[in-house]
Structures are given as C-alpha cells and as structure tokens.
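Structure, all two chains, one model.
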Amino acid sequence: MAHKIGVVGDKDSILPFKMLGFDVFYASEAKEARKMVDHLAKNEYGIIYLTETLGEKIPDTIRRYDSKIQPAVILIPNHTGSLNIGKKRIQDNVEKAVGQNIL
Amino acid sequence: MNKGKIVSVSGPLVTAEGMEHANIQDICRVGDLGLIGEIIEMRGSIASIQVYEETSMVGPGEPVETTGEALSVELAPGIMSQMFDGIQRPLDTFLKRAESNYLSRGVSIEPLDREKKWTFTPSVTVGTKVTTGDVIGHVQETPVVDHKIMVPVGVEGTVTDVKTGDFNITETIYTLDTEEGKKEFTMTQKWPVRRGRPTARKLNPTTPLKTGQRVIDTLFPVAKGGSAAVPGPFGAGKTVVQHQIAKYADVDIVVYVGCGERGNEMTDVINEFPELIDPNTGESIMARTILIANTSNMPVAAREASIYTGITIAEYFRDMGYSVAIMADSTSRWAEALREMSGRLEEMPGDEGYPAYLGSRLAEFYERAGKVITLGNEGREGSITAIGAVSPPGGDTSEPVTQNTLRVAKVFWGLDAGLSRKRHFPAINWLDSYSLYVNEMTAHIGETLGVDWNKMVTRSSSLLQDEAELQEIVQLVGAESLSEKDRLKLVVARMIREDYLQQNAFDDVDSTTSIQKQYEMLHTILTFEEEAKKGMELGAYFDEIIQGTVDIRERIGRGKFLPENEIAQFEDMRSSIQETIHQVVEKGGMDTDA
C-alpha cells in the first residue's frame, strides 16, 4: 500500500523537499504544527518529516505517534543546523530494538 | 402407643427394632431422655432414626416411641420476628427453659406462644362458603405484617360461626360446616415440612427483586419468585451479600436460615437487624424477618431439617399473598449434613461422598421457590425467592453441591477471592456470574424508569469484558501499546468497577441504592465515556482529557455517597462533564475542519 510523505516545518527549511515530490506544509508555531501533524496522520500519510525546532515544542504529539505503526514521525534538522534530537531518537530506537547501541 | 427398642447408636443415627407399626418420616421420642428424631429408613421392623439432638449417653435397650406424625411446623401468629432452631423450637424460650446458652436435650417446647392474645378481625360473615386458602380474618402481627388467617388445606365448607376479639392461638375462632360435619378451627395450622404447600398455579416471574445492591440489580438481577446461588470461597463475603439482601430487598417477608455457619453471624443479625429501618415501610427490619438458626455447633441432623422448616414458613406467608425471600446460608453445610447421615446409613456414596440423591434434594428445595397464584377464591399472587449460599471447599466451583445448585438456580453470583483480596466488595465477579432473568428484568426496569436501561447495562458489561481482554495485552506489552480509544475504555471500565460496582455495606448511604440512583450513577459514567470519545474525535489527546477531568472524575467517584434525596446533583455532574471536555478540546485539540 502506497503512502504519502509529508514534511512539516518552516518555509525556509522544507521548501527543497518539494523538489523531491514530497508534500510540504508550513508551520511555525506549536499549535499549528500539532494541528498539521494530526491532520496528516488522519489522512494516511506514512511518513511525516518534522523539523527539530518544532518537534521540540510538541513532545506530546510525537509521543502519541511513537506507539503507532503509522505515521512515522521523523525529526529532521532545519536550515540553521541540527539540535541532535532527531539523531538521538534514532539511536534510542535502535537501542530499544536491538538491545544495544550498535551505531 | 407402640414402643420400640434401641439396637445401636451411631452419632445422630439411631436404629431401633420392634418398629413395624411406624412409618417413614414419623417423628419419634428416642431414649429415656426423649430426644426428637425422625425415621429416615425402614427395613422390616428395624427403623433408622435421625435424631435432631445430641445422642451421647443414649444406649441400646432404651425405648423409642413414635408419635405417628411427620415433622411439622406450627403456623400461626407469633411466628414473626422469632428465632427458631432447625425443628422450630424458639431459641429465647429455650434459653429460659434450659437456663443455659447451649441446647439441652429432650426439652419439649411449644413452637409458638400459647398464652399471647391476638386481636382477630374477621373478614367473612356467617353463611359464607369458603374453600382452602380463603381468608377468614386478619391479625396485625407486627406493624408491617398483616397475618391472614386462612382456611387450612383440604377443608371446604360454610361458615357457621366466627368470632371477633382477642384470642390466643389455641382458642376456636371459627366453625365450618363441612361435608364431615361441623368442625372448629383455631388460628393455628400445622404443615409437614417435607411437603410443599399446594398452590393454584405457578407463574413466570416478571418483576425484579430490588436488592439495593448495584452489581446485582444492574448486571445480575434476580426475579421475585426466582432462585439464586451465591458460591464463594471463605471470606469472599457470601454472608454479607445475604445479609444485605435480607436487609434491603423490597420484599414483604424475609426468612433467614443460618445453616451450619458461625454463631457470630447470627449474633450480627440479632444485633443489627432490630436497629435497621426498612426504607419501604419505615419500621424495623426485624418486624418482617424470621430467623432459623442451626449454627455449626448445633446438632447436625437438625441442620437438614432447618432448610425445610424455613421454606415451609416461607410458603405459608406466600400463601397469604406476600413476596417472601428465603436466604439459606449455607447450603453446603446442609449438604454435608446429608452426607454425614448418608455415610452412617452406609449408602453408596456419589461424588465426593455426597449421597446420590443430593441433586434431587437440592432441586426439591429450589423448586419450592416461585411466583404463584395461591389457592382460594381471591387468587392472590405470592412469591418466594430462594437465595442459597454455597461454600465450595477451596473456592472450586466444580464440586457437586455448586454444580447441582447451578442446575436448578437461574442466577449465579460467583464470589471471587481475588476481588475480595483487592477489597472490591461485593466481590461478585462480573465475568463469571450470570443471570438468566437479565433480559426480562432490565426491560422491566427500563419501562418503569422510562429509559433505555437495557442498552446501558449491555454497554457496561461489554466495557467490563473488553477491559479483561485489554488487561491481558497490557500485562504482556504495557499500556503504551494500546490505542487511545482502548485506553479510554480502560479508564471508563475502571470507573464502572470502582465508582459503581464497588459498594460499601458498612456505609450508611452506600449500603443500599435505589434503582433511580443506580440509573443516575451509571448514566453519569456513560456520559463521561461518550463525551470523552467526542473530545478525542475533535482532536484532544487522551492524556489531555485524563489530566483535564481529574476533578470531575473524582466527583463522579464520590457520587455513591450522595444521599438519595440529592440525586439531582448527578444532572449537574453530567453538564459539568460536558463543559470540562469542551474546555480541554478548546485548549489543545483541533476544530472540526480536520
């Protein structure tokens, strides 16, 4: 089953994704971002890329989708640089899955 | 009178020879002490007699005298509020006569007070034709019980004389001109306990017995005229359930048979019941209660009789047109008495040593319950609801007494040791228990309340069932793995368990709950579920709803302690549930345009 890929974040950071054919949605505030992620999740987006700066503001929402198979909410750095939250999440998940940090 | 001679004595079983004149089920006076016994087996001239009193110091050679009568109870005014032993000897008179707290032997006491005068008001006039079951007159026995004096079974005739005034129960109060000539009658009737009193016909039970216990009235209702079994391991609360029903059920008469259980439980009854006020009549509960006590240290054979004595008294009041509830606590002790006698008779044992006829004996008892049209021209409607506790050893309900009981009882309130350890009382397990009356009874309650009660009950039980399944998943992989919908289900199911089903028998308010209040409480909890679901659809997260509704959920939890006259507050609660959830949605959730 094909799923769509959505990107949520500030305009400057996510505009390039449009070139790849992803749907981009602009959000700059926590409330907006939360609405957008919930909205995408409801509309069968399989992967949602979210900028780390926004992700930091809506931990509840991210935790909510952690336990679900889809969508996968993946944090990406924005144009100002990485906050290392995204990377840490991946490492945590790997550790959970394998039992050891192999990265 | 013919006399036999004792051949052997084995505990409560005495065999005597020279008894060819006697019949089975005759009452005998055994030995020099004159102990009361009943013939339960005849082989030629040898009779086996079950003795209802302690038989130590009775030996072979002593005489046995038969009375030629079957074991009977005396039915007349004065029976209410009394406490009898298994063969209808009043225990307070016994105490005075024996001058001891324990039973002494060979004492013969009149079951009912012969001296006391009762005011009799006739309701028939001379010349009226009457038949069995017709009411001759009334005696106001206690403030709530109008004792109807009925024409005994098998008698028919024309009234030639009827008196008015104060009489004791042995004085003639009316005379009938029957086919066999004129006959004089007193207020007293005698009836053999092992025979059911006849009725015109049986009816299908349709009205619920309101017990005031939420788990029973809502999930597992019993009909007036139905039969229920309460099996449970030690300490699970069988006796408390029975006491609660005896206290608060909306019946006219309660017969409480304490059969082989601890004496202190009967003490509780004697101490508590007189102080309690029946919410339906405003009088003391004792004014409608008859107690039959055969505690664990009383003779085992009389235990066997106590159940029959109880149900015969219940039938007598049913014939007056009352709804009667009989509690038997516990039928296991009664079955053990059967087993002991059967063993001494050297009968072939069945399962676990119980006699092969255990099932039919249990059925005999429960089948005497029912809703009936009584004999007599009036066609009164009376009912007996039989509720028997069963104490399966080790709480294992696959043992014979429980199984045989379940075959005849239509309601099963399975008490659960796990629940009682968690302090969830009444510890009636909502997954194991059942009531075959549930459809008719919920429909009836729904009609009286004018609401869809059936739907609410179904919703609650399906929530509780889902909860059990979800709990298994939670135990395997943790609560996080559940969807938000399922987590809400868990919360609501917990509210139903803790705020609704759990009921404190020792709290003044919570001890009993009217059907109206039960509806309000359940409606409030289900409203919460509904609103929370809506909130989640509007984008609020489960965690937000739970955090936002802490206060209101606590208020719902305290709802059971709201007195009956303040149930309007539930309406208030429901509107504040709506408000709170709206606030939660506004704060975080997204609007409907999603």
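Chain B touches chain A at residues 480-481, 483-484, 539, 541, 543-544, 588, 590, 594 (CB under 8 Å).
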